[in-house]
């Protein structure tokens, strides 16, 4: 990735994190594009060059992680499929290194409560579904490449991609839903192991 691409990726991430942080802290309706741009250190015009709405900026974090999973599957072609899937998902979803550098909330319970409210926002749900569909298609394409399958004709790549996205979404939802806040890494590890046992590589 060249310098220009890295800078664009950093701006995308900064805007998305700012949108998430402010929405968690204040509520979706109390955050303006101008607020997000200011928090990310850019102009509102720059925000509009990257995203068409607050919801798209928030959903970008989820989309970006999923697309990184697909990218990793293509790069790790010498590993067994489900080992590569599990390692890639855990690396991009269970590691909190990046999130710990951005969030703001000293009170983890308060942050989690705010995330629960954010993901229930009707205006965000449609954008999250769109992001999930884009990511699922990309993961399916990566699986088809690895297995030598036909993306248009074969069921397997699409079934695997749907299962992976289902595992991710269910693990995150369960993490947010439970008072004990079971670590996402453990939930993802268990979910993917169960799926892999029944979806062996053809």
TrEMBL record:
The keyword Transcription regulation applies. Residues 9-69 form the HTH tetR-type domain. The lineage of its organism: Bacteria, Bacillati, Actinomycetota, Actinomycetes, Kitasatosporales. This is TetR family transcriptional regulator. PROSITE patterns: HTH_TETR_2. Signal peptide: none annotated. Keywords: DNA-binding, Transcription, Transcription regulation. It comes from the Bacteria. Residues 32-51 bind DNA.
């Amino acid at each position: 990735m060249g310098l220009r691409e890295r800078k664009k990726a950093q701006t995308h991430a900064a805007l998305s994190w700012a949108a998430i942080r402010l929405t968690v802290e204040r509520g979706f309706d109390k955050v303006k594009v101008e607020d997000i741009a200011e928090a990310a250190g850019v102009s509102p015009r720059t925000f509009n060059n990257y995203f068409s709405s607050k919801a798209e900026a928030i959903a970008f974090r989820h989309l970006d992680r999923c697309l990184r999973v697909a990218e990793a599957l293509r790069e790790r072609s010498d590993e067994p499929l489900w080992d590569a899937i599990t390692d890639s998902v855990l690396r991009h979803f269970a590691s909190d290194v990046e999130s710990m550098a951005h969030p703001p909330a000293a009170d983890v319970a308060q942050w989690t409560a705010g995330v629960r409210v954010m993901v229930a926002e009707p205006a965000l749900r449609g954008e999250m579904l769109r992001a999930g569909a884009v990511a699922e298609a990309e993961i399916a394409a990566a699986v088809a490449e690895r297995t030598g399958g036909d993306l248009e004709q074969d069921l397997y790549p699409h079934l695997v991609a749907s299962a992976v996205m289902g595992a991710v979404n269910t693990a995150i939802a369960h993490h947010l839903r439970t008072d004990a806040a079971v670590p996402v890494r453990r939930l993802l590890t268990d979910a993917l192991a169960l799926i892999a046992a029944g979806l062996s590589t053809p």
